[in-house]
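Q: Could you predict the 3D structure of TetR/AcrR family transcriptional regulator C-terminal domain-containing protein?
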Amino acid sequence: MVSAADPGENRTSVWLVAKPATPVRRRTEAPSGLDRERITAATVRLLDADGLTRFSMRRLAAGLGVTAMSLYWYVDTKHDLLELALDRVLGEQSLPAGPYGSGGAGWQDGLRDLARGYRRVLAAHPWVAPLSAAYPDIGPHARAFDAALQRLMDATGLVGAVRTGAHLAVRQFLHGCGGAVRRAPEGDFCLALDVLITGIEARAEAGTKTTATATATADA
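A: Sure. Here are the predicted structure tokens for TetR/AcrR family transcriptional regulator C-terminal domain-containing protein:
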């Protein structure tokens, strides 16, 4: 049986499915007072209140005062709805805007803001961490998050495999902290984040020195 956090192997993400225009017959027969936004917001509230394991379309419909079948006018599956809810709460986070010049100062504070904001989302919505592991984070808010992280990584001045490794380390840190977000004190999280940032800084400084030495040797 497929669980709420296990979408199975043959499913296509809701963000990759082109939704055809709703036929006239369906528009006129659709339940009044409902739309995808309202259903998604109610899904978030139910997940926050009852958790992922207790979530069901029947419970959601009861909270909205409609039948479970009414929900399927707006979403094809429960998994589609969970993906929509996941991206909706990711949109609660304020993203650092920059700009950050390559190798310039300021990316460290931007990365701290990004990581702490993501941790707050995980703490406020404990179901986000397992859903992020089960579904591809490719909704509009997830893409905006990724774009903000890419700008920060660009600003470190790292290139090539080192930049790829630093980016992977940050991603793993952010996702890894999800399982421990309610156990690890804020101070411990911030300390671990500072250690990560210090490591990135060290590699960036080493790369700058190597480039400067190579340039001086070539000019000699």
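Q: Anything worth pointing out?
A: The two ends are 69 Å apart (CA to CA).
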